[in-house]
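The methods section describes the discrete structure representation at length, but only in general terms. Each protein is reduced to its one-letter sequence and a matching series of backbone shape codes. I believe one specimen quoted in the main text would settle the matter. An entry of this sort, consisting of the sequence and the corresponding backbone structure tokens, reads as follows.
***
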Amino acid sequence: MGAIAAILVFAFLFGGGGLRYGLANLVVQLAAFAALALNRTSFLSFWQSAPLAVRLLVGLSLLAPLLQLIPLPPLLWGGLPGRDLAAQSLQAAGYSGWMPMSLEPRRTLLAATALVTPLAVITVGWRLPRQWLLSLGWLFASAGLVTFAVGAFQVSPQGNVGGFYGDRFSQDILLGTFANRNTTGILLVGALGFATVLPPPRPIPGLLAWRLALCILIVLAIILTRSRSSLLLTALPLGLASLRTLRLLFARRSASKAPRRTNPLLLGAAGLGLAATLLGGLIVYAPGRIGDTLSRFDEIENNPRYYIWEDSVYAAWRYWPIGAGTGTFDEVFQIDESLENMTQRRAGRAHNDYLEIAVEFGLPGLILVAAWIGLLAWLSWRARTSKLRWGAWAGSCFLFAIALQSITDYPLRNQAILAFAGFALLVLVRLGASEPDERRQ
């Protein structure tokens, strides 16, 4: 349990900056490598006892970028789609040796090493008792509270505190420990899902009131990120919470309960009082923030992403059906970016991870994505028979939120989200397993 907690904490503190912050990402990956080295038994147990579909897709996801690094003979490589310009450049430089399929092998290798973080979370945590996974789920929910606490200073005019990765959005947007508001928002959506439905590992007096207070703070933090996609995606965890509430209302019995030593009303009042105090304080210190968030929906028609998507589709057809190589989008997109869509800034990303995967890995990448989405749907359906199904569905809620946000962003191009996504998958598989399946593991 300690190893996974350490990876998640390191990822939360150092892994929120993306590609440009390589040293910070290295800290997270070194923690993941250390966890794998110290938990070899759990690593092997995953490959022996995990569901076949999970093992297969995890293995293919690891293998995909590595296959693109295998050197190919000049005749074969030169015949691949979209390699004509690179072949002419190599010919002009006098080089005619073997080349990997990827047009930028270093970026592809970097993308491959990034996968060690979710791999460590999934495999190291495979043998953990399910009650320990519940405790780690509350650690995920607590990350939302920490993000709120850090972000409160970032949006306060008196705080004068910028983001962890520079002052680009200082005193304007709640970023927490991330460099991108959409990434902050999607982590908060995941934290909200666990906070709303995750059962406690042990009975806690006044849990409902404290849970409600935590959820209020996380929702407020999502609003203050000013991330439109994240705000819309709060419908997933809130919908899940509504379903659970209805289920509890229908299943409630009228049998009287013995009096408790600790008065839950006092604890609940304390939790609600804390939430109300912090909510009121932010409204005073950051007036107009909620209105600013809602006003961003009026800017959708002028979104520059539309122009990037148009050129990304053209780039995808250039390298279809095998792609240009994982992690190469920023390099190859410059060739196909139309003059009328160019600005002084580089696109950097496709701002649609499905289009970016189409450019980088072509048809095989899209098939792999479709297989993952199908697997998540099957695992979520299977979880309906588990006693811990609500915890499992909190994990699937986060993963489907990532899949939806990927339509307009790139949440998984981030070490922190990769780590928490790996944990969500672990929770979905383990907590969603029925008791006979659990005993066989």
